[in-house]
Structures
1.
Amino acid sequence: MKFFQLFSAFFISEKITEVKFMETISQIITNIDTFVWGPVMLILLVGTGIFLTFRTKFAAWRNLSYALKSVLSKEARTTKRGDGDVSPFSALMTALAATIGTGNIIGVATAMFAGGPGALVWMWVSACFGLTSKFSECMLSIKYRTINEKGEMSGGPMYTMRNGLKNKTFGKVLGFLFALFTVLASFGIGNMTQANSISNSIHEVFGVSTTITGIIITILALVIILGGITSISKISSVVVPGMAVFYVIAGIIVILLNIQHVPAGLAQIFVMAFHPQAIGGGVMGVITVTVMNSIRYGVARGVFSNEAGLGSAAITAAAATTDDPVRQGYINMTGTFFDTIVVCTITGLAIASSGVLGTCDSTGAALQGVQLTMAAFSSVLGPAGKYLVGIGIILFAFSTILGWEYHGEKAFEYLFQSHKYNMIYRIIFSLVVFIGATQTLQLVWDLSDIMNALMAIPNLICLLLMSKEVAQEVNRFQPVIEKEKAMGKIKVRANA
């Protein structure tokens, strides 16, 4: 009896020690996450965008209309102009597949809960300056891309660092670090966390077990991913525009049905971006925010959503068929506009106009995250609102898995300096989807955040060091833009 008592005591103490150890590890990871996404990183991300915007004389802003017209042109859907693997439109859609994700639904709601409605303003600010960051990293990626042994384009910040920086040793070190962090991030933020969002959403909305969902999305991912960039881009070219239009229309309906509250919601958004106050909800919920919280969460979630400055979109941009890197840089830059200015704004306005911010659920807990967005849509659409948001999360998250697979694969290829192992990466990546769909992943979420931040650091260093070259390329191509604009006007006059 005494033996069993001693054994039980030992076993229990070991379990307690193990739990305490995991709690300690989790807390350390959380603290690191808080630090890396603290003021220094946010200042570096936005500051780089501001610096590049001024250095290029606001070219991204001045040429935004040109970029949007280029995206929507028939030529963008062809592979006739220049070299590359996929059309300019397909390259953009694949990049958007990775960026338009749960951050547009859950991230916006989280930012507005933690930082108040004013966080949306700071998301817009980060996007405005993020346009130039996104343009710069994509343009340089195309300029310094290479062709692998298979005849496919290989590019991204790691190639820019290795081939573009004057100090080759430093460039190789930065390139290696960026590629390593990208591979790690691809399994986290680009895979497991997205799969987890899909399985949880399907379980909550439709009652399907996470295991069944995990099996289905793993098979779907494997079938698509095995086809490489061609297969991924074809799916993305259909799914991404479709899901974006679907969600935007649903969001606009919510806003229009709450139109009488939109002016007050907009006023609250702009006022609380600069003046701290408490938000009182309809069910005794109160959220207290500060200007600093508003800035922090707005910028952090904005960058998290559009990935401007992280360098991930530049990997996909390198696959585009184009006759000039600047041209495709402008096309890919619109991803930040569509992601934050359009999709995130729809979510933010739907929440602000519905009056659900600050309300509580039946247990007395304040609504936040996906529950907050679902409540906003359900406020006017009833039970259908919950289903619409759930479907949006499923589509957004799955497309993110596809987009990030390509990012990780190209980084993996860079690390091994060969495409021969890409198929192994594709299979492992697809199988990891099942793990993400069936496991609780708070630790993975935190680790993913850290990997994203670590990706950004070498990329931002590279952008700052090559800012002069970015400005020179912008100036070189500007006459081409002016000529094409003039030719467009001539055609319009001739047709008239």
2.
Amino acid sequence: MANEKQQFVSELKELLQKNVAEVKEQVEMLKTQFYRQYHQELEAQKKAALEAAQAAGEVLENWLPSFDELEQEFRELLNTYKQRRAELQKQVEEEQAQNLLRKENILQQMKEMADAETADVMDNIKKMKELQAEWKTIGAVHPTKVQEIWKTYQQYQEQFYDLVKINIELRDLDFKKNLEMKTLLCEAAEKLQENPNIVEASRALQQLHDEWAEIGPVARELREELWNRFKQASSIINKKHQAHFDELHAKENENLEKKQALIAQLKDINVEKIKGNKQWEEATEKVQTIQQEWRMIGFAPKKQNQVIYEEYRLLCDEFFKSKTSYYKGMRDEFAENLKKKRQLVEAAEALKSSTDWKETTDKLVELQKQWKAIGPVARKYSDELWKMFTSACDTFFEAKRIATKEAREAFAQKRAEAKERWTKKVDQLNDRQKLVKMYENLVQEIKTAENNILFFTGKSKTANKLVDDMQKKIDTLKGQLSELENKINQMDAE
């Protein structure tokens, strides 16, 4: 509603930039529309205050409406308009009064000339021309005086020309001059047909008619022909002017149809079927679009304009009243949802530092499921709560990720070390097996050598030499055997 009143204020400001004499009807319409809406708001405020008082068990006394800056601004603009209009009216009335005095003075002089029994014809003609010229320079008088003073002016002119009995030549000369002037007026009226601005052309035509009335007569035989020419040119302008206003009326009828179509769209919006915040936002956007389109449409015909506006205003008010009622009912639900989500945030905050990865993960997953099941909260809390909740969850899961990574890396390190030890052990076992095999071979070789010594002992010198060589070999082999035994024992010790 505030937007509508602001629109009325803006339109009134625009009208005040124009000539106040031309915007009276538009200002009165804006005034009616603004204060109808303003009084509706006051009734609503008073009703709400009364209901609140009744609910509290109190009696509403000395209720005063809240201050409305837009109403004050609109009232000040109206006062400005009234002041300017009053000033303009005063100025016009003063000018009309001055013009009336000047014309009455001229009429008095003409009367004296018309009533004079003797006069200098040439001097009086000259003086009459001067008075006529001065008469043309004087602006309008009050509408109630126009016809009376014009008739008197014409009467004194005729009386003067009859009295002085101006000769035919002078009269013909005057008729010729008047003919030239009225012919120019005919040409000017015909030229106006080319003006694309028919309103401007119509105003100019009215001025030409005023000038026509100020010019004296032409020869009797030319009067009808000249007047018909002027009237024909005027008729064309008048028909165009009428066609222009017919077009305006057609446009107003078109505007009426457009506004009726927008009203039909408003009626199609069934608030009983609107469920949830998203649907209310979509419906609100549709209504606001309709309102924007309504403001772009001009006036409908005067008889229907106010009626259709009241219907439009009622439908808009009913929609936003239903929307307000819906969101009023949602506040308790939002409050309960806010309480639940705050509890979940506290629970998540309490778990974020836990190192019991499995159990805590299950708990946080369950909290996330509960969060999704809870309805919406007010927008001013929604983002903050969500950030706090997700931050707590993210803190835990990031710590879990890091810990899991470190555990995996430690396990991999231990596995690599174990593998290395096992490989070394296998290599050692293989080396020992080789040594044991060499040891067994040496033992067998020593036994064989010892058996051979017994075969050669005491038989000959050559045999004895072979025995000595064999014994040396046995001693060497036993030395090697001892070394192998030490290596094997050393391996076993490790």
3.
Amino acid sequence: MILLIYTKDIVYTYIIAKLEVLFMKKYIINSFTFTIISFLFAEIILLPNILYEAIPYQSYKLINNKEILPFEKVWYDVWKNIDNLTIREQIAITTYIVNYINPDFTPAYIVRGDAYFTNKDYIEALQDYTTAIEQQPNNAEIYYKRGLTYNYLKDFYPTAINDFKQATDLNNNIANFWAEYSYALKFSHYGADEMLAKAIAINPQYKNFNYNELEQQRTTIVYSSALEKALFYSYIGNYFLADKYFEIVNRLNYLPKQVNINYNYIINMMKSAILSGHFENAFYTGKHFLSTNSNNLNNDKLAEVYMWEAFACAGIYKEDLFVQYKNLALNLSPKNPQVYWILGNIYWKIYDDTSNAIDNYQKALNLMPKENLDYFILSMELAQIYKNLGDITKAYAIAYNMIISQKELPNIENINPLDTPIYLTYAKAYDILGNTQLAKIYYQIAFNLNPNIDIPEKYYPNKVEKLQYLPSIIIDINDTTAIELKTNIFNYGT
């Protein structure tokens, strides 16, 4: 039996917020008074105590003869069925185990690493295999799996080669180990024939091992998936992972004639590199693109590339080039809000020049349609600067006007990873307005979707909170253990 049970506090807060947005647009009333009235209304009328139990929202629970049992007490029953779950279900379960049950449970890292690998989340797979190796340094299979991942990424020497050496030193009787060792050496070093001969001696089928065919198949798979993930992570603001996947794309770019390196691609790659602190990579990327593709862009798009190049130059202290690219962008597209937004970021993040940052942010906002999502996001960046400067009045006014202009709040029941920037923006707004309950909800949603964002320390989730937005799992234990997950988020790549 599947039960949908939500934490009262979150339901209360969400209902209050919806009512608050509705009423504050129509009536000017004291926010604190309204909150008290709304809370009493929700408590007495909408949510009687007998209908809801105070258990974590979307948490893992087990139902046994109508008795609710904490997942952590019977998690091993679920673990025994882990192979029967889908990839995303395996990721959800193992994440819960290593973050909440037992961080030293090595098999969970291996299973999750395998799941990530199958889902083409290669960076995440490498991280889990590395953790597993740290915990079990004499496990040959883990070295093999990490080496195999490096082989897919064409990161052969010395990473893949070292892993296969470790695997074969620990266990020299498995043909796969020697075959993949041979593959790594074939494209990076020497000695491939010797290693392949050892694989054939164990399993004669490796006589037909075709390096080039296998390399082409893997490269095609990894290239397309890495490009997709790079763009996805860039969009949701996870610039660390985006940059990592762009690095893979660049390493595997063996199809230049078949791949259209367009404006969207180059902008996101430069942005991810810059916001990950890799200014020099962004600089050379932009320089190469401008030398080969600048004639294919209209003035607005070309100006944005120029300004991102100016950003990269500022980051590596090429002041003359910064001024040159900045002026090119402004002269080419003087009414492009994106150009002023990027320039504002340069002044704020590189030069700590809040005056010029505010000036350029305001220019960008004046050129943007107010119904545009970018207007919403940039407004809160401006409010954040005023807050940092101690001008709480201006910060509050921007946040308040932004909130009351919205028709409805983002949905917290059917969370979409693509809405990560929206959740983060709402979090910042409610933080400035002093609504810590809603700020916490939206910060933690955004954090769970993108753990690489910076959030105020007071909103940083603990282990339980960090997991509350994973798919809920309700397990009905009868004669056999049945498992069902409500996978309404983290569905990217499935």
4.
Amino acid sequence: MSNSSLTRRQKIERLKLLKLQKQRNARDGFGKFVLYTKGDYSMQWFHDIVCSYLDKLASREIKKLMIFMPPQHGKTELSSRRFPAYLFGKNPNEKIILGSYNLTKAVEFVMDCNRIMQEPSYQELFPETKLIGKQTAQYFEVNNGKGFLKGAGMDSGVTGTTATGIIIDDPFKGRNEANSENTRSKIWKTYSDDFQTRLNNDSFQLMLFTRWHEDDLAGRILDPENENYDEEESKEWTVIAFSALKEDSKPIECALDYDDPRELDDALWEAKHSKEKYVKRRRINPTGFASLDQQRPSALEGNKMLREWFNIIKENELPFNPNEVAPDYFIDGAFTDQSQNDETGLLACYYHKPQNRLYIFNCTGIRKELYELLPFFKDYAKSNYLSTRSKVIIEPKASGKPLKSMLSKFEFGGFNVLEVPNKVVALGKWNRVENSEPFLASGKVWLIQGSWNSRFIDQCATFPNATHDDMVDVLTYAIHHYFVKGEVKGVKYSE
């Protein structure tokens, strides 16, 4: 029956049924709840992913969730304002502590949640959930104290409260606080000594980050290189990370894989924060871009390799056809079953003799065991203009020996595999970097434009302060292979 043939009464009944269906959906799914209570919320594809995992947290299908997202992308509206309200609708007995970098900010979230729960749209969905009991700016009770929401500052902690869940939204106010080792340690102590001790076996934890520093709460929990890292604790966390511009690798290794509809270097939310804006920001403030926007906080700038030394050229501007040359591939192998070890560095490049320049097609760092690395490298080489004349140059340490042997076999690619000369390896990382500096500074090394550029330059520019230096290793091996000849630091070597 078409809508035009319905009577007025039938139309009213249909609208009532549609509203009831919307209400049922809003009670049973967080994303629908958000749209019901805030009709103007612009729900994007990545918000859908966040909402689906917040549903899992609400049902305790998962109990620990981290969300990394660039600023001004709606994470706080979802997670710190509306999610607690949704939880109280599902279970008025929830006892939630909501923390932020200071009490003032936490109070703001508490008051926002209080306001949402008083709105008619919320009361339509959850009429049994009432704001009855003690009510202050920092704290409110639900159904005469059966549940509550309490704000707390990471700078002051929380006492005397047992909770069924904690939400921590941006524990650092800004870069100055994040760069302070004392502040980072204080926040870690507040989290581990105060917040965590308020939880029981069925409690949930939700952390929302714009990442300022590699040694933030996320780094201390998730980074195998951090002294506070605990492998079992790390495995308990579900991690979702969104980068402002799409790259060819995840911002953090342990983050979930998800279906990202973007092309490489596309913006996360183009209509609100354009690709052009982020490309400019990447150029002007690469360190801030890497941490806040890409969720890849790096160490403080080093003093060995300057960012301005890395020239970037578009592929269609190359002085040669990449399909007609023979690139070489450098590997610094670190495959292992120990997650705390360094990454394996891979570099694909071509030395253009007429210009005396090295062009790098791609450089990346990955953490894979040998059985995973072999097929990965085969695909990596093919995607970076593999030729029958190409060579693979491997650092000859313990992990490099079996890799060399297997890559030489036909079933694993039948590559022409060479070793980095032992005397070059013996120079040591620091000396190799120093030897490479003149060639970088004089414009002998060019990067092919790609989403990998930022991560590569970050690691080089922060050497020796970065957690990983695998890409630095393969870069210096390549520079020594093509440019550094004769006697170096008193050591004679040949190719």
